Amino acid sequence: MKLNLQRPIVFFDLETTGLNPSEDRIIEICCIKLHPDGKRDIKTRRVNPEKEISSEASEITGITDDDVKDEPTFKQMAKGIYNFFENCDISGYNIMRFDLRVLTEEFKRAGISFDASAHQLVDVQRIFHKKEPRTLEA
């Protein structure tokens, strides 16, 4: 399927230290930017969260404190990540409930105002649940 894009769209996913969007931190970010002409830019980077990764998160992600101890912090990468998302629509799975909230908090801690409402947002999980309802009626 070919997408009819008017501007670039960034699909992103985060791995984090835990499940609390306001307190937990990013330990890995992966972004794919798809341009209207079909060109793709891919960025994947581990992040030093400056806090301990929960054992549950390490078990799920396979990422340990040792894996990220020498990586840059989010604050050190924030401007580059912000620029990657600038003037793009944004998509991902479950981004409205979790990933976008974590990303916004990380930008806030880095002193960068990230306004998600300036982007068109596509949460693939919402599309999936509409197409494949998980109700008794379905």
How would you describe what is shown here?
There is one protein chain. The chain has 5 helices and 5 strands; from the N terminus they run βββαααβαβα. Helix content is 33%, strand content 22%. The relative contact order is 0.18. The longest helix is centred in the last third of the chain and has 15 residues, at 95-109. Helix 4 (95-109) links the parallel strand 4 and strand 5 (121-123). It is of the alpha/beta class. The protein has a 5-stranded mixed sheet. The protein has helices spanning 55-61, 65-68, 74-85, 95-109, 124-131; strands at residues 9-16, 26-34, 40-46, 89-92, 121-123.
List the SSEs and their pairings:
Layout: E1 9-16, E2 26-34, E3 40-46, H1 55-61, H2 65-68, H3 74-85, E4 89-92, H4 95-109, E5 121-123, H5 124-131
Parallel strand pairs: 1-4, 4-5
Antiparallel strand pairs: 1-2, 2-3
Secondary structural class: alpha/beta
Main β-sheet description: 5 strands, mixed
N- to C-terminal separation? 27 Å
Strand-and-helix sequence, N→C? EEEHHHEHEH
Task: Determine Rg (CA atoms, Å).
Answer: 16 Å
- Stretches where pLDDT is under 50 for at least 5 consecutive residues are none
What are its keywords?
138 residues, alpha/beta, five-stranded mixed beta sheet, 5 helices, 33% helix, globular
Concise description?
The chain is α/β, with parallel strands linked by helices and 138 residues long.
